[in-house]
Amino acid sequence: MVLSDDVLPLIRTRSDLHRWSAANAHGRDMHEAVDILEAAVGVTDPVQVYSVTHRALTSAVKVIARADDSSGIIGDACRRLLELHPRVAAAAAVSPTKLVEWMVKFQFDGEVDYFELDPVDYAPALGGTGVTTYREKLREIETRLGPRPADRWESPHSHEWWVLDWNARRLAVLDHDIDAIIRTHAKDMKVAAWLEDTARAFEEVGEFDLAVDWAKKATDFDGGHQSLKAADYWCSLLEEHHPVQARQARLDVFRRWPSSTTAARLHQQAREDWPDLHDEVLSTLAASPRDAVMFALMTLKDPAFAWHLAHSLSLESADLWSELIKSYEKIDPLAVLPIHQRLVERQLTDANANNYRLAARRLVKMSELAQGSEKATEVDEFIAHLREVHRRRPRLQQEFDRAGLLRFD
Length: 409
Fold this sequence. Notes:
There is one protein chain. By secondary structure, the protein is mainly α. The protein has a domain at 333-409. The protein is built from 21 helices and no strands. It starts with a helix and ends in a 7-residue tail after the last helix.
């Protein structure tokens, strides 16, 4: 059987994909098709692989245009095809002229407008002449659009301007043009994320010191979430390229944005130096009981210490208490019973079938933990109390019955 017979029926479909479940099922078929194509690279005739990949991509875009892809399964399959397409185009020595025509049409007159093509990836297939032709086509489009609007979102050609800006950024990377990278990525330097984008572009072209500098600019921009994200990237760059500076950078980031996450990354980087930082980190995290307990439990892997912190800092987070008692019950199964009881009572505050199921499971767990101990009677009495207090909630009684919780009539 030829490759197209294996692949294309898994991509194409006449089914109604407006139903979420149907779209997900077909998306899985599409991923199977991409698996087949990827396995064919280097094994099957490259011209055939390109032809089938190109047809599959064309069909995949038509599919997603009429599908409920809320889960993103079909979109991920399309992106895999988009990643494969330039590789197989280069291997098949596709005509640069035809490839440029397709790239322009796909981006400016395509079936959908939420995928982009990367000229950096296509450069090997295009060659020098093809890249030049591609640039000329982009300039022609920009000329037809007229003066650039102050705000492209107010332009009737906002998509075209977005595509042109995207290509300008990627072509700056392709050219390894430092000034162009700054101009196209950092723009007016008014957004931290743009500064991080600039850093990532410099990393891509191997300008690691510039990447570090621009990541630091993004980190220092303000105290917002974009700067926090950039700070983690800045630290990762230092860990790879300037490891001597990495510990202090992680410490600076923690001091600026204290949380269980920044503490965990500092702990990972500090290694044997951790004892020098332990007291500062824990005293800082104490201002946020959730972060302190999360750090002790998830990073330090010390449920006993986390248990102590949860009580001493008056932890209120129900979900974290739930995680904590899963670990601490191995140390002292009876000690966690009052926490289970409190969580059950909280779950039953609202009349909700899902809450009833969760409460019933927790009560079963309490019975198992207390079995054979002096606390077993107290657990039974608690269940009986809940049965009586909520006697007018038939769904609750039903869920308790399903869980095998005894009635005490």
